[in-house]
Design a protein that fits this description.
Length: 455
């Protein structure tokens, strides 16, 4: 069997750069309505379930992809500047340009865009993703070391597997679960593996984070709740200080102290980001239920795996497909710090470039497997380490200097979680939109509607 890992093998991106162009007023309104508003409405930082339901019912991501493809046919595949009063905003329409934006950072393309700063400062004002260029390197290096990027088995791998087994096997033995039963169990596991066993039942902490994330959805439009934010960071700091063995807090405590890192802000980002991993896990089960041959191969992999710290490449690929097909980061943004040249055209400094994940991952005009479950996309043969322009069209964990440093830990943890949920059983989907082999997979999938039975 082909070894699988987490680098997509893709068609080479078209090599010839294309100039930027400008959308008219009508087209700007159409794109704002079909591609941007549905993303914002769903909640960039904390999903709003009624809007997630609506997106699924109306397949809003499909409409967004169609609108973006239509604009690309009209203008070519260079960046498309929208007519937004007082702002310079460009939609990215090619893998080539996405590759350039992600690779060339943090200058001239900064990940700390003003939209991200406005949103994330509500709960992690000194988080790495929104750090200014002079503060970013130390925080980035710290995150890479703590989360052990590019290390398939994190130092806490055995403990993570144990926590996943303890917190999630109850769902399997109950024989049936939905989002409302999965999510609380997932958060118990997340609190334990991030902060230690003492945090297992500290729902007040994640509720507080949830309230601040809900404010963050409104970015500039909501006032910062300074006292609540300080309280969140204080409580996280206390868990980090306790450094319970087997948790990420223990890994953090072992790192050299650097006051400029502001550890609690970084850990606030981690807690927030585990939500996406839970959603990806819950959706992965729909892929397993709808693809029996793959599920059978996964069952063999789980049977054979090491009991203490299992390496599960097929499950990693399943989760990667979950976040490719239904990206949890709806858009990846970059802001230019200077004027930039696009095949002879100039795009002004201060432009926010929007890479819509739905188009990047599901571009059926360019990708054969856009709408199929295709775990083989993550096969490692000849994958040149995530830097080739040919890989840029599928970036669920971003790429380049701001790519997700939690990626390997996430893929390990979600893989282990799926192995616990499915071990020795066949999974059947009993509610929510079906994801069935041989049919074009839906572009919007309401994870809150999915429910499963095991037999
Ligand atoms: C399914 C789960 C996850 C997905 C799909 C994901 C995806 C991403 C993406 C796309 C970015 C980059 C955003 C950008 O380029 O603007 C990012 C950044 C980041 N992620 Fe994740 N992430 C996940 C879970 C996690 C977890 C669980 C952690 C920590 C435990 C984490 C830690 C981070 C950090 C610290 C950054 C900022 C990196 C920087 O600014 O250099 N992520 N993630």
């Amino acid at each position: 069997m082909t070894a699988l890992h987490d680098r997509a093998v893709q068609h080479p991106a078209p090599a010839v750069p294309a100039p930027a162009s400008r959308a008219g007023v009508g087209e700007t309104l159409r794109l704002a309505g079909t591609a941007l508003a549905p993303m914002l409405a769903r909640g960039i930082i904390l999903r709003r379930p009624p809007l997630v339901r609506l997106a699924d019912r109306l397949q809003l991501d499909d409409r967004a992809v169609r609108a973006l493809q239509a604009s690309r046919r009209r203008h070519g595949d260079g960046p498309l500047l929208l007519r937004v009063p007082g702002r310079s905003l460009a939609l990215v329409l090619s893998a080539r340009d996405a590759g350039r934006l992600l690779a060339e950072g943090p200058t001239p393309f900064s990940p700390a865009t003003r939209e991200k700063r406005a949103a994330l400062q509500h709960f992690q004002p000194r988080g790495v993703l929104i750090s200014p260029p002079e503060e970013r390197p130390a925080r980035r290096a710290w995150n890479e070391t703590a989360l052990q990027v590019d290390v398939p088995l994190h130092a806490q791998a055995a403990s993570v597997a144990q926590i996943a087994a303890q917190e999630l096997s109850g769902l399997r033995t109950a024989g049936r679960w939905d989002w409302d039963t999965f999510a609380p169990a997932w958060w118990r596991a997340v609190r334990r593996l991030t902060l230690g066993d003492a945090a297992r039942d500290d729902e007040a902490l994640t509720d507080l984070l949830g309230r601040l994330r809900s404010r963050a959805n409104w970015a500039f439009l909501r006032r910062t709740d300074g006292p609540a934010r300080a309280e969140l960071l204080r409580r996280i700091e206390a868990y980090v200080q306790a450094a319970e063995p087997g948790s990420l807090a223990a890994t953090v405590a072992a790192l050299p102290a650097d006051p400029d890192v502001h550890v609690a802000d970084q850990v606030a980002h981690w807690l927030f980001a585990w939500d996406a991993a839970g959603i990806a896990t819950h959706r992965s089960l729909a892929l397993l239920a709808g693809h029996p041959a793959h599920a059978a191969a996964v069952a063999e992999e789980v049977d054979r795996a090491d009991a203490v710290a299992p390496d599960l490449p097929l499950l990693r690929a399943t989760v990667l497909e979950s976040v490719r097909l239904w990206p949890t980061t709806l858009a990846v943004l970059r802001e230019s710090t200077q004027d930039t040249d696009w095949a002879g055209s100039t795009v002004p400094a201060g432009t926010t470039f929007v890479i819509a994940s739905s188009l990047a991952h599901r571009d059926d005009e360019l990708l054969d497997d856009a709408d199929r479950f295709a775990p083989q996309l993550w096969a490692d043969d000849a994958a040149p380490g995530g830097t080739s322009a040919s890989l840029w069209s599928m970036v669920p964990f971003s790429a380049g200097p701001a790519r997700c440093p939690g990626r390997d830990l996430v893929l390990y943890t979600t893989g282990v979680a799926l192995s616990v949920l499915t071990a020795g059983h066949r999974v059947e989907q009993v509610a929510g939109r079906r994801v069935v082999e041989g049919t074009a997979l839906p572009r919007s999938l309401d994870h809150t509607a999915l429910a499963y039975r095991v037999s």
